[in-house]
Amino acid sequence: MSATFTVINPATALPIREIARASVDETDAAISRAVVAQRVWASLPPVARADALRSFARVVQAHVEELAQLEVQNSGHPIGSARWEASHVAQVLNFYAGAPERLSGQQIPVAGGLDVTFHEPYGVVGIIVPWNFPMTIASWGFAPALAAGNAVVLKPAELTPLTAVRLGELALAAGLPEGLFSVVTGSGSVVGQRFVSHPDVRKVVFTGSTSVGTDVAAGCARELKPVTLELGGKSANIVFADADLEKAAASAPGAVFDNAGQDCCARSRILVERSVRDRFLELLEPAVRAWRVGDPAVEGTDMGPLISASHRSTVEGFLDGANVAFRGSAPSGDGFWFPPTVVLADRGDRLAREEVFGPVVAVLPFDDEADAIRLANDTIYGLAGSIWTENLGRAVRVSRGVKSGVLSVNSHSSVRYWTPFGGMKASGLGRELGPDAAEHFTETKNVFFATD
């Protein structure tokens, strides 16, 4: 295996940089450094860890434009989105900077003594990040893990390592101890697998495909190692006849075409009550055609390219035999471009059940509330979804009936760092984010003091 790999700009198909591909020995060395750094980090007073995380947040915020430009080049994210993502990293760090001083245990009444609990850090946490949102997803793991007193070794995707590498450098510039937050670049079969098998990595966080996540879970099970998994999705955007159809149609492109549909939360199925399906499609078509696909470095671009030529071929394969209703536009020539596409699908179609991970949305009709719930749940996934209705009772009933971890009513918002995030069924295991996330990176120790 080559000692380096080439990072490609998906908007131009041109190489950007050569990045080192770590070996098992180099991965082990990073883990060993993390073990040493973690002992010092965990011994610090909570306020010292909080101050260090706030310092890290300030340094990230000062480099938002640099990080955003890196993401535009490496991931093809539109510049406006990339700036938001870089700022989001700083916000997540600031939020979890409050956690070290909140990680208090319990005092439990017992006879004959005093019983107390402590939140003890795992030690070293291995975080494996996908290529679709390299900065934001990394921060959801490393910020609460560091806040809880752990060290972190982070493996970015080979396709999109540049912002993760830079965040590792900024952590050192902010004053975090050497080895506490390490970025190890390389293949999943080497670096990621070593996170799973190494005895000093005591927890693994993986975001990616369900198939790989299953392997990660199996490997962690053999090591009796806790794991958090955020995996695939085939989320439903459910539109009832009583909804504000204009608002639902206007927001639908953003719900599925953001990041070129390369989003596990993408509402890639639009389920519309049969009586208003035609009207909804009339409203949706101009919104799709207005979706601006182009150079991600240009202000106002809504959508950039797909991540690679091979991924574009995969997405194209989903359209074989599909009933395409209408499409937006996309540039031709260099770069991995693909137009936003709306397909009229039947319930048994591949497009209605499998994750495309591209700018393709399937529209399916439903007959009533029970049918909408049944259709929304007719997939192995259960990550996100939206419900559009003016009936509050229906919104509550359907929210309870749909088997997804994150739902929104009259909105397509999925992720807030101060609320829990995660999936059901084949979409994942465990929860990220929210006020209790730092506790998920600790083990509960129970101590009884006899007083008799």
* Number of strand segments: 20
Binned strand content: 15-25%
Q: Taking Cα atoms only, what radius of gyration do you get, to the nearest Å?
A: 23 Å
Which regions have little confidence, pLDDT < 50, spanning 5+ residues?
Answer: none
Shape: globular
Count of helical regions: 13
Distance between the termini: 65 Å
Classification by helices and strands: alpha/beta
Helix/strand layout:
Layout: E1 4-9, E2 14-20, H1 24-43, H2 46-62, H3 64-75, H4 79-96, E3 107-110, E4 113-121, E5 124-128, H5 134-147, E6 151-155, H6 162-173, E7 181-183, H7 188-197, E8 201-207, H8 210-222, E9 227-230, E10 236-239, H9 245-257, E11 269-273, H10 277-289, H11 309-317, E12 323-327, E13 341-344, E14 360-366, H12 369-376, E15 381-382, E16 385-388, H13 392-401, E17 408-409, E18 424-425, E19 428-429, E20 442-450
Parallel strand pairs: 5-6, 5-8, 6-7, 8-9, 10-11, 10-16, 11-14, 13-14, 16-17
Antiparallel strand pairs: 1-2, 3-4, 4-20, 9-19, 12-13, 15-18
